[in-house]
Write a structure and sequence with these properties.
Blueprint: E1 5-11, H1 15-25, E2 29-30, E3 34-36, E4 41-47, E5 52-58, H2 66-71, E6 76-84, H3 87-96, E7 108-109, E8 115-119, E9 128-133
Parallel strand pairs: 1-5, 6-9
Antiparallel strand pairs: 1-6, 2-4, 3-4, 4-5, 7-8, 8-9
Amino acid sequence: MIGRLNHVAIVVPNLSAASAIYAETLGADVSAPEDLASHGVTVVFVNLPNTKIELLHPFGDASPIAGFLEKNPAGGMHHICYEVDDIEAASAQMVATGARVLGDGKPTIGAHGKPVLFLHPKDFCGTLVELEQA
């Protein structure tokens, strides 16, 4: 069911500093920051030949990742995102197999403008998993 690795998301306490590490130290192609108010994050994408790294920073007081930074002040890996051909079919399969789809279980539009779902980390070896429609 899952396709290629779309991205690995890392929460960072300082988006400018993290972007500079990837751009200047590692020589990566780094996008401009983009505020995603509906998700409560500001994102930067580090574009690699075979995938992306998504740098996440809280946006607004209700950011879902603010608590992550409180527990992990230096930041850290937040989630991994896999592509799927059909997000609705993937959601149905997750529910049928007992995996927990977070939120109301319905896809939302993610940072790439495509439908996404998040799956409970306790069902996936302690890792928050995002599925994104390819």
